Amino acid sequence: MFGSVLAFEARRMVRNFPPLFFGLAFPVMILAVFGGIYGNEPSDLFDGVGTVDASVPAYVAMVLAVAGLMSLPLGMVEYRSRGILRRLRATPARPGAFLAAQVVVNGVVCLLGVGVLLTSAATVFDLSAPRHPVAFAGTLLLTGAAMFSLGLLIAAVARSESTAVVIANLAYFPMIFLTGATVPLEIMPGWMRTVSDALPLSYGVDALRWAWSGHGGDQVPAALAVLGGVTVACSAAAARLFRWE
To answer: For 228-238, what is each residue's pLDDT tens digit?
Structure first.
């Protein structure tokens, strides 16, 4: 039964334009703009790291935020508010199967988005190879887990589709514009950097950039601790608050 549910969710995702556009195309568009302007020459702004080498790991975090904070919670709230999850209880397809399928499908979209982004950056802008590939993969999973757990918490507390859209947007837009995921924090004023310290995705950006370029390692332990804490706390809260109807 899970295979059938997963196939259904995959077809539904293919027909859903916003998460595919913002997960697959939008990061490449941002890369094309900033990469076209600054190239990948070593930059004093990034301690001698190329602009593309410093920016691409941040764009990876943006891909994870799109799926975790927008696509996943909005899909779950839609199912619940329209009574779909309640009616599923009378069928062999349990609601938990739809939740797991949502996570899997959105995870695959994240991997595709990251793959398209890295391939584009390497082909067009001569993106360097990651200094710590294993650490990069682990940090990618941990950052994704933090974003997905936040998304599940949004799905747990939002009682209607309109409320979910508002909450998701309030979480998503500060998360991508004030954390370095799109615009580098290095060019932002000091007060904005202070705001970014309160946003979990900032720590994902820091850890991913270190794993890719090898710079900023002193911030990594704290970043990993924050991401792990967010994952555990939000997952526990979502499990406690989530209702199928």
So the answer is: 999 999 999 99
